[in-house]
Amino acid sequence: QVQLVESGGGSVQAGGSLRLSCVASRYTYRRYAAMSWYRQAPGKEREFVSTINSDGRTSYADSVKGRFTISQDNAKNTLYLQMNSLKPEDTAMYYCNYGGTDWGQGTQVTVSS
Asked: How far apart (Å, rounded) are the C-alpha atoms in residues 62 and 73?
């Protein structure tokens, strides 16, 4: 099982920016699996935010397209999510996912209006 540790969450005002990080360790044979960000707001189901495949292809939820950017540093085993122009509706716990099966503990993002 891959261990994932997220960081970088916090409280910001609308229009602000944050960069989330997710450090992955204990890689197995699935080293080159896709990595993704999901989020879950209070009272809502967890939803997809963005993913990056081993070949660098990315995809985004429509709600964050043009505002968020996913990237990874393979040398540091780290996944990033740069979040710009944040909105109150972006408020949620953000989770890192590895290969569709392994999850981190999450990092809280709160955006005030």
From this structure: 24
Pair 97, 3: CB distance under 8 Å: no
* Distances, alpha carbon 14 to alpha carbons 9, 53, 82, 88, 105, in Å: 14, 30, 15, 6, 25
From the number of C-beta atoms within 10 Å of its C-beta (0-12, 13-18, 19+), residue 66 rates as exposed
Pick the closest to residue 87 from 50, 56, 112, 53 (CA basis). 112
Q: Is 71 exposed, middle or buried (0-12, 13-18, 19+ CB in 10 A)?
A: middle
- Going from the C-alpha of 25 to that of each of 2, 3, 66, 101, the distances in angstroms are 6, 5, 30, 14
43 Cβ contact list (under 8 Å, min separation 6): none
pLDDT tens track, the chain, 113 positions:
788 999 999 999 999 999 999 998 865 545 668 999 999 999 999 999 999 998 889 999 999 999 999 999 888 889 999 999 999 999 999 999 998 889 999 999 999 99
